[in-house]
Each structure stands twice: as C-alpha cells, then as structure tokens.
Amino acid sequence: MNTKILNKRRSSAKIINYIICAMSEHVWFAHANVKVAVCGASGGIGQPLSLLLKGSPHVTELSLYDIVHTPGVAADLSHIETAAAVKGYNGPEQLKDALKGAEIVIIPAGVPRKPGMTRDDLFNTNASIVRDLAKACAEVCPKALIGIISNPVNSTVPIASEVLQKAGVYDPNRIFGVSTLDVVRANTFIAEAKNLDPTKVNVPVVGGHSGVTIIPLISQAKPSVEFSKDKLKALTERIQATGTEVVKAKAGAGSATLSMAYAGARFTFALCRALKGEPNIIECAYVRSNITEAKYFSTPLLIGPSGIQKNLGLGKLSDFESELLAAAIPELKKNIQKGEDFVNK
User: Fold this and answer.
1) For 73-92, what is each residue's pLDDT tens digit?
2) 16 or 74: whose pLDDT is higher?
3) Where does substrate bind (predicted)?
4) Residue 282, class by beta-carbon neighbours within 10 Å (0-12 exposed, 13-18 middle, 19+ buried)?
5) pLDDT at site 124
6) What range defines the domain where residue 331 resides?
7) Is 288 annotated for ligand binding?
8) Residue 118 banded pLDDT, cuts 50, 70, 90
9) Domain co-membership, 96 together with 209
C-alpha cells in the first residue's frame, strides 16, 4: 500500500480515537456534576483532601472554606488540569457563600492531636467549630450529605445532629462520621499479615472512631482470614491504637493527615457516586443508629442519592468481637452524651 495513504489512515485513526476518548470523558463529567464543600480546607487534612478531590472526575465544583489561607490553597489547586472548578472562601463572614449549592459538605476543620493528647482533649475547641459549621449548613444547605472528620467523631456527630435538630432540618440519613480510616488501616494491616493485595481486602470496622470503640470485624474479612488468638488480639489492638502510633511518630508535628485525607476522599467519592444513583455503594460510617444500645454507631451502610438507604448491621460476631462490643458500648454512650450536653447545656 502507498506509504502516504497508510500514514493518512493512521492519522485519521488517531483523530477518531482522540474524539471518542474526548466524547467519553465529556459524558463522564456530565454525569458527575457534584459540588463539594470542604470546611477546614487549609489544614493538615484539608489540603491533601482537597488535592485528591480536585483530581477526581466525580467532583465538578470544589468550594474551599477555612478561617485563613484559603484563597492561596484555592489558587494553587486551580492550576491543576482537571475539570473541577475551585473557589476559596476565607473567614466566618464568607462561610455561607462557601456552602451555597453544596451537595456534599466534608468537615476536617479543627485542631490536630499532639503527643499525650487523647481525642477527648480536643473536645472543647473542635466541638465549637463543628457546632458553628453545622448551624451554617442548617441554614444554607440543609439537604447536603455531611461527612464529619473533626475529632472526637464519637462526640462531634451528635453535636452536628443536635444543632440540625434544633434548626428543624435534621435528617439522620444525611449525616456521617467519617470512620473510613479505621477500615483503611484494618485492610492494610490484615493484607500485610497475610501477604495479600490490600486493594482486594475488605474488613468491616464498626462501633466508634477512637480507642476501644473501634471494633474491626476480622471474622467477616473478605477474603476470609484466620489468626491465632494472640495475633488476633495484637492486630485488633494495633487497629484501635494506630492514631496514637502516628501522633508519636510525628513527634509533635501533628496527627494522621495524609492517610485521613485519603480515607476522607474515598468516602467522599462514595457519596458522589451514590448521589448520581450508582447502585451498591457500601461504606462503614458512624451514624444515628438503633443497631445497639448506643444512639450512634458505625456499621456498613448502603448509601443512595438521599443518604443512608439501609443500615446493614453487625452481621454474625465472633465471641472475641462480642467482647469488644461489650467494652465499646459504655465508652460510646459517654462520648455521645458529652456531645449532646455540649449543645443543650
């Protein structure tokens, strides 16, 4: 065949391939029209979380809010060659503008944990921040799906719920405590212990998001795994205490920020996909619940366009996991009460 004709055909094939790719990409973005607001976008979790959200085709508008430095973070991110439009909002007077039209609000705002501090030590500062952000959400975007990262999650989710309830816009299916990091850690540690691909491991983690309230259901892991009694105990205790492990390793420079940003992004993408009607979106999260005696509890959830479609519950627990549950409930109840009392005092 004539070389010129062959080259023309190759060139035409390349152009057609490019058009097909461009069209499919356009269709993908057209079906992923979600506005996400990040409250606390300039912080240690907020910045890498915002970066991950900017890079995703699930997000078309990214609204960044914090009390300082947000315009700089937004300007920096806006130069990245992805479809999401980015805008930064600074200070309390711009909070309501930041939340306008938001379908998903993710809240990593607050102070980080330092060596020697428990999540409870963060309570007073972070409780006030979450309360004020929840008030603004109640007024501006009451139908948004809200994911709370700010610790102590066991208390901050009840705080946000009480605020929304007082405002008359509370929908328990739309408020989530983002406990995804516990799942991510469990998947990683189980994969390491059994030499598995961590992306193929799924361990449900139920309960709360601190210390003994974190209950990894290793008996329900997929693929199925088995450990000796001692190894199981050691793995469980590591999953429960990994936050402290990071705080110590950072030696005063903060707590888990990068892994939390990854986990927060994973959960946000699940909400985006659910909003667009994708079926079978299942994630563990800390929510209002009647599964146990605790008013709030994390379990696997089927999530749809309006939030929780179905709470999938605890499943069958091993004897060891039943003991963990019994130890977690009193602590959870105390944390929940503390959050509710903060709003109602």
Assistant:
1) 999 999 999 999 999 999 99
2) 74
3) 113, 119, 151, 185
4) middle
5) 84
6) 180-344
7) no
8) low
9) no
Into how many domains does the chain fold? 2
Neighbours of 85 (CB within 10 A): 13
* Residue 28 belongs to some domain of the structure: no
Pick the closest to residue 332 from 291, 284, 282 (CA basis). 291
Has residue 4 been placed in a domain? no
What average pLDDT does the chain have?
91
* DSSP string of 153-171, one letter each residue: HHHHHHHHHHHHHHTT---
12 is known to lie in a ligand binding site: no
Instruction: Provide the total of helices (H) and of strands (E) in the chain, helices listed first.
Output: 10, 11
Is position 40 annotated in a ligand binding site?
yes
Paired tokens of 86: 């980015």
Check if 209 is active-site: yes
CA 319 – CA 303 distance, rounded (Å) = 29
46 is in an annotated binding site: yes
Measure the CA–CA gap between 254 and 236, rounded to whole angstroms.
24
In this structure, what CATH number is given to the domain that contains residue 122? 3.40.50.720
> Over 80: is that where the pLDDT of 108 sits?
yes
153 with 191, same domain? no
Query: 37-51, 200-214, 245-259: which range is least confident on average?
Result: 245-259
| Strand bridging mode 281-288 / 296-304 | antiparallel
Q: For residues 258 and 262, what is the distance between their CA atoms, to the nearest angstrom?
A: 6
Is 119 a known ligand-binding residue?
yes
The neighbouring-strand residues paired with 105 are: 37, 146
Looking at residue 26, its pLDDT comes to: 34
150 in a labelled binding site: yes
Largest Cα separation within the chain, whole Å, is 86
Q: Does some domain include residue 13? A: no
Q: Whole-angstrom Cα distance, residue 105 to residue 42? A: 15
Question: Is 259 annotated to bind ligand?
Answer: no
Instruction: Return the structure tokens found at 254.
Output: 């903060």
- Catalytic residue of the set 31, 58, 69, 209: 209
Residues 137 and 254 in one domain: no
